[in-house]
Structure formats: C-alpha cells, structure tokens
Amino acid sequence: MFPETRGKGVQAIGSYFLSVIPPPRIGLLRLGPSLHRTGMAIAASLEQAGKRILLLRSDYQRDGGEVFAIKPEGIRARPRTEWKTCNYQLVREERASDLLLFLLHPDIPSLPRLLPLLNLLVLLLPEERGDAIAAYRSTKRVLAHRRDLPLGLFSAGDSEAATAVLERFLLGLHAFLKLRPLNFGTIPARCAKEILSLRLEPPAEPYFLGTY
Amino acid sequence: MELIKAGSLSPLFVLDLLLQGKAAIPGVEVIGQRVGSRGVVIGIDADTVYVIRVGGTSSEVLLAALHDLAWLKEEELLVRALFPQVARPFAGVILAVDLFPPGFASLLPLFSFPCRFFRTIAFDNPSFPSLVFESYPPLVPESRTVWEGTTEEEERFFSSW
User: Fold this and answer.
1) Which of A206, B53, B104, B157 lies at a 20 to 30 A Cα distance from B98?
2) Nearest of A108, A95, A88 to residue A203 by alpha carbon
3) Which of B5, B129, B158 sits opposite A136 (nearest CB)?
4) Strand, coil or helix: what is B98?
5) pLDDT mean over A180-202
6) Domain that holds residue B22
7) Do A176 and B129 touch (CB under 8 A)?
C-alpha cells in the first residue's frame, strides 16, 4: 500500500511548489534622462523593506531594437545543474520573488505588449521643469494603450523643482486626461512604502512560462 | 546574465536548443528530431502539425518555411509513420524570428494555412545562452483618438509655469 501512495505524495509536493502564486508586476517608466538610478533606488528600497525583487530592464536602441537586461544581483545563485535553460531559470526566479519590476523606456517596441500585463505603472518624472513637456508627451502616448492601469507618480530628486514637476503632473493628468494618479513622492523609500501599501493582486498567470 | 537580441544566435543553434529541450515555444511541443532529408523540424500544438523556421527576420525565413510546408504535406505518410501519436490536421508554419516588419500581422488572414508567429528574445550568458519566445503580434488596444498628440493648452501647461 505504501509504495502506491508514495508516488502520489511526491507528485502532490511537486505540484505545490510549482503552483506558487505569481508575483505582481510593476512597470517603472523612465520619462527623462538619468532615471535609471532612480529605478534602481526604488528597487533597492523595496528589497530593504524585505521584498524579494526580480528586476528586468528594457532599453531602446538607436536601430529601433530593444535590449533586455537583468539586474545581476537580482538572480540568486543556484547550482548550474538545476537550470535547464534561462527560461527555466527565470520561471524559478519569478516564482521565488515577491515583485517583478520592469524598468522601462517609453520607446521600446514591447511596451504595448507589456502594459496589459502590469498591475501598476509608476511614472518616473524628470527633476527639471524643462523636461516636463517631453515627459508629458511620452506619458500620453504610452497611456493611450492602457488607460485603466493603476498609476503612480514619482519625481526624481528631493528638490523644490522635483516637487514642482510632481505637482504639475498630478494636476495636469487629472485636468487633461481625467486620471487620478497616486502620489509616490520624491524619495525612493516613500515610493516603496506606497507601493507595498497597495497590496497588489497577483496576476492569473506567471510572466515567464517554462518547460518541465 | 546580460543583454540581448536574438540576432546574436544563429538559427541552427536556436533549432538545436529547441530540439534539445533547452528552449521552448509556448504552447508548442517540438518533435525531438529532424525529419527527412530536408532536416525539417516540426512541432505540434493542440490543433495542428507545424514546420518550424527560425531566423533574424520574417522575410528571411517565410519563403523557406513555405517550401518546408509543401514538403511536410508531401511527406505526411512519413511523418505519421514516425510519429503515430500525431493525428492532427497537416500542416502549418511557425515563424520564430527576432524582428517582424511593421504591418506584418495584417498578413495573417491572407495565409490559407495555420500559422503562428513568435518573437525571439535571447538571453546571452557566457555559460549557457538561452531563449524566450513571445507571441506575435503584441496585444494593442484600438481606439486612441484624443490620446494622440498634445494640444496647445497642454503644451503651455507643461512648458511654462
């Protein structure tokens, strides 16, 4: 009797580990120059808050292409023999993470595909007033693809100018686009705290699909 | 792990990864060997048997895939003999490429046979390069209207304050 039930037990245990709820997905959209560090700082703040983060960055290339990168320290070391493929590795990493972060450029070709998959989009606003109109144009173009997406605003740099840009966008997005974005402030730690307070619903399916 | 576009990997290498089970196309079971003298790689989803072609651009591989498709139809008996579990309609084309030209998705209804497209993204790693395939075309909502462009009022609001 025991040998018959043991197989089912192992199968059940395996199913348990493979059916972990996928982590919510957050897009960090860089709407100005030098905002890569800002995105990394927000990711670091989330990690400091005890969350396991898998961060992917997607950049726009001059030839119209797109490059993906994964934060090196975002991939936890495992024995090589455990990984059949990178696909498999990413499947595992996603399931071992509390949040999946995409650090995005507004011109990448895959943005229309990614937006429907996100639970939250955080606009990383420029610190300088002079960059605000370009950031708004990009915002409007991007949000045309997903107007119902929960939206947060974060302005890089804890300065008077950054605060002014943030307030301008809060007002402007409400006035012109009838949106009510959340105010995530100008400090990465506050932004992380605001994100965590949202208690985002996990997606129905994981982002990375693998073979087993 | 770093960068990457799939163009850094040769099509033959991509096919080898698929055949070795080291890469997967979502929803497609890749038959684990090349078939016939043409070396065509075939795959199966819930409905159809496909030939699989990979490459950098769709135009580069589409013609070859159509030739493969013709071969697959001619060799249907051979394929059925090799894979008796295959009792599905023949045959379709899977294109897995790095880049699709603008508007390529609009050609889909013109094909008189089943076809599926995937964009290839490669993750280059010194120890083990590997792949992710995503369905093409991407999902894009239709109506944009007032969301396109910015008005003078918006320009003033965000430019001068």
Assistant:
1) A206
2) A95
3) B158
4) strand
5) 93
6) 6-159
7) no
